[in-house]
Amino acid sequence: LAAVPLFALLPAEEVRLLARTARPLTLGPTERMVVQDQEGESLFVVAEGEVEVVLRRDDGEDLTVDTMGKGAVVGEMSLLTGQRRSATVRAIEGAVVYEIGARQYGPCLRRHPELLADLASLMATRLKERRARLDDLEPDRIAIIARIRSAFSLR
Fold it and tell me: Which of 145, 151, 126 is nearest to 53 (CA)?
């Protein structure tokens, strides 16, 4: 956990405490740990395998926006801000993740409120990166739709 930016801000003893209290979960292929639009009070750290981040578009289409492996953190925005989950995250071929909930992370923040500004900066950077990734995907998606329509003579 100490190598993960979200936890690297914490003193070593806090990281050890989080590691001891994190709940391990073993996920099967395509099993979800985060579901878009649901409330969430925990984050997940990928320990083994890979997970994919899937965004359900307004038109009902699912768009894979990222693939993440060992050391990746997902769900932190909901944990830290109380917002609903912005995407679905599921294992690809299976994964082992560690869940850290508000009951574990909250006391760390109460003991170290000086970390809030650094956490906010990390979160803002991640949001910018995700938005940029989505912006990069959208032109490809539009071009692919146009090619499919052309190939099948669709309007």
Answer: 126
